[in-house]
């Protein structure tokens, strides 16, 4: 049997639950469903179970605009974030609309029918849905596995090798020598979190990352909440944090030398006297060429100062039976090696998109406002900011989709499709970001354009104006009605 809904959402993580909330609030009578490949709500926050997993953004901005974050912790642990997402779904009745264990394989648009036919698998059997509008909230991570380079001699290692994306529940590292390979957000989270049980933890990095300490509690947000209550305090704290993060980002782009000096000075204050700061904490790139790593209350620096953790900056020559031999000739003894070497990206969950029988080749499409695709009707997706909290953008996309659906209803349109017919628009990478996980896969993604509305904005304040209040019928987005029985659309 084929189930029909007006809006079909793919993904029941942070973005999907938020999208459903915006939809049901604006249109209580519209039918919708959420297809979730896994058996639980939460997406990324249900997938990652490694020690210390936490947000890398403050929860005043990673939280939903419509539901205040009320915990005192601004940098929250993974289980708390997962509970927040699940509570949001339960309180709004969104969980009753989720079809768990439904892996979407293919989605085909029919202009004649003005609807999508979506094919999925459930318990090994094919299932089918039709919908007027398809809304992908599946993120861009490949849930099947993370990125692990080919390390020479790894088969000779006598210890345990794990990737953070698939953390074994029964892994016991008590009293053991642990080496964490990597220097990104996952590595700087794991290292201090594992020192409570490990004998010693070493972070092995090829090159340093910019690391900035941030209080785990937002004193102003907590004070405002006690004075004004959660509902009034939340937007103030949210905009304060947006302003601070925007200032840091803009300073990083315009005065990188000044920001580098500030970060270096802050690191020196938290590390032991005489520590080789420039060896282990001086990246080769400029601030915000890659995402800044935040450490709550300086936990990484405190672990190093106590002697529970250390950093080695070198390259791997090969694995040995008892550890890792480095290109410098030194050897790191290890019982457990954690390959925090990055993620793999997967555009739109690997779903095959088809429009009127023609497969959509993603690299040949252009992203409209960073949330729709040229030539693909009645379709939206969520990709969050790389320089700020993901949910800031996810909320704005949800609000825009609501505005778009209202426009369709108000004018009796059946179809909307972005069309790029401006020869002056040139192609740009969708994500202008130098992180390894982006560079490895960006060619498989849609392109961005050199001018609006084909750019993927990275300014929340600018996007608030553009997406929350900007004109829907802007000339690039084309609207049409389906002629009954004619199989054609009229403008």
TrEMBL record:
<dbReference type="Pfam" id="PF00743">
    <property type="entry name" value="FMO-like"/>
</dbReference>
<comment type="similarity">
    <text>Belongs to the FAD-binding monooxygenase family.</text>
</comment>
<keyword id="KW-0285">Flavoprotein</keyword>
<dbReference type="InterPro" id="IPR036188">
    <property type="entry name" value="FAD/NAD-bd_sf"/>
</dbReference>
<dbReference type="GO" id="GO:0004499">
    <property type="term" value="F:N,N-dimethylaniline monooxygenase activity"/>
</dbReference>
<keyword id="KW-0560">Oxidoreductase</keyword>
<dbReference type="Pfam" id="PF13450">
    <property type="entry name" value="NAD_binding_8"/>
</dbReference>
<keyword id="KW-0274">FAD</keyword>
<keyword id="KW-0521">NADP</keyword>
<protein>
    <submittedName>
        <fullName>NAD(P)/FAD-dependent oxidoreductase</fullName>
        <ecNumber>1.14.13.-</ecNumber>
    </submittedName>
</protein>
<dbReference type="GO" id="GO:0050661">
    <property type="term" value="F:NADP binding"/>
</dbReference>
<keyword id="KW-0503">Monooxygenase</keyword>
<dbReference type="InterPro" id="IPR020946">
    <property type="entry name" value="Flavin_mOase-like"/>
</dbReference>
<dbReference type="GO" id="GO:0050660">
    <property type="term" value="F:flavin adenine dinucleotide binding"/>
</dbReference>
<dbReference type="InterPro" id="IPR051820">
    <property type="entry name" value="FAD-binding_MO"/>
</dbReference>
């Amino acid at each position: 049997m084929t189930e029909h809904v007006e809006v079909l959402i793919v993904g029941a993580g942070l973005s999907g639950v938020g999208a459903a909330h915006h939809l049901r609030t604006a249109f209580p009578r519209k039918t919708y469903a959420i297809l979730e490949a896994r058996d639980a709500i939460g997406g990324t926050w249900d997938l990652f179970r490694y020690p210390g997993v936490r947000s890398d953004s403050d929860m005043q901005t990673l939280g939903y605009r419509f539901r205040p974050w009320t915990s005192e912790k601004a940098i929250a642990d993974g289980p708390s974030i997962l509970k927040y997402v699940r509570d949001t779904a339960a309180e709004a009745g969104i969980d009753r609309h989720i079809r768990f264990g439904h892996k979407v394989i293919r989605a085909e648009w029919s202009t004649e029918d003005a609807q999508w036919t979506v094919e999925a698998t459930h318990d090994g059997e094919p299932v089918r849905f039709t919908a007027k509008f398809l809304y992908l909230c599946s993120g861009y991570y490949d849930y099947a596995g993370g990125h692990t380079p080919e390390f020479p001699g790894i088969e000779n290692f006598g210890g345990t090798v794990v990737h953070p994306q698939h953390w074994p529940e029964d892994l016991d590292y008590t009293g053991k020598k642990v080496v964490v390979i990597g220097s990104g957000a996952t590595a700087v989270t794991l290292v201090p979190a594992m020192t409570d049980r490990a004998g010693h933890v070493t972070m092995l990095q090829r090159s340093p990352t910019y690391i900035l300490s941030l209080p785990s509690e937002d004193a102003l947000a907590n004070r405002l909440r006690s004075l004004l209550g959660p509902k009034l305090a939340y937007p103030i704290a949210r905009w304060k944090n947006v302003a601070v993060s925007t200032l840091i980002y803009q300073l990083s782009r315009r005065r990188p030398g000044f920001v580098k000096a500030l970060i270096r000075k802050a690191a020196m204050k938290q590390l032991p006297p005489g520590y080789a700061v420039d060896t282990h904490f001086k990246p080769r790139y400029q601030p915000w060429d890659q995402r800044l790593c935040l450490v709550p209350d300086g936990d990484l620096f405190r672990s190093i100062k106590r002697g529970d953790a250390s950093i080695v900056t070198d390259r791997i020559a090969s694995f040995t039976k008892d550890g890792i031999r480095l290109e410098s000739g030194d050897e790191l003894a290890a019982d457990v090696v954690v390959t925090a070497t990055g993620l793999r990206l997967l555009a739109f969950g690997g779903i095959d998109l088809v429009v009127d029988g023609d497969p959509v080749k993603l690299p040949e499409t252009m992203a409209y406002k960073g949330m729709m695709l040229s030539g693909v009707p009645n379709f939206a997706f969520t990709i969050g900011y790389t320089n700020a909290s993901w949910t800031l953008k996810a909320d704005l996309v949800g609000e825009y989709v609501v505005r778009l659906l209202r426009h369709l209803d108000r004018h009796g349109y059946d179809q909307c499709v972005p069309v790029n017919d401006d020869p002056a628009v040139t192609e740009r990478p969708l994500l202008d970001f130098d992180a390894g996980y982006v560079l490895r896969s960006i060619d498989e993604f849609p392109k961005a354009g050199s001018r609006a509305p084909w750019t993927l904005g990275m300014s929340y304040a600018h996007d608030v104006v553009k997406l929350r209040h900007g004109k829907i019928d802007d000339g690039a987005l084309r609207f049409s009605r389906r002629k009954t029985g004619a199989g054609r659309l009229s403008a």
